[in-house]
Amino acid sequence: MKVQRILYRMRQFWSALFAAPSLEDLKTVDSLLSPEQRALFQQMQPSEQAHSIQVMHAVLHTINGRAGERRQDLLAAALLHDVGKIRYPLRIWERILIVLGRAFTPEQVKRWGEGEANGWRRAFVVAARHPEWGAQMAAAAGVSPLTEALIRWHQKQLLSHQRDSQDEDLYILQSADHEL
Fold this sequence. Notes:
mainly alpha, 10 helices
């Protein structure tokens, strides 16, 4: 792991300890999500809410000027992309374990992420399966099919250089999520 990446992760860790959304940001969330979707968002840990709001702001910066339904779908996906983590909330040491595992043994982390979220593998299963769980929860809360797909695939690696509009939206979401 490069020194810059380690310093980045240390800053991310300290920020997550004290992160919480502002009242202004929560008003924006209220304007973008339905009551059912807001109920999901509100179940997320404050640091996850703050992260999702940061992702939403990064998406807004990228799509500056875009209007319409796809814009709304992309912003809702930004706010709810990690909502699957509410099924099994992660403790800070589990988040550290995931980051270290991905840095040093990425193939093992993939294997550990299979199966049930029990015991010492719990954090790895949550990391691997939260997109699927979140898509299911968001669909039940009434998001659009595009928003559901963006949540479901937000950790999927895009391989093709020829992208359709959904892949473009997924790329925007992933870029925003990974830069934060």
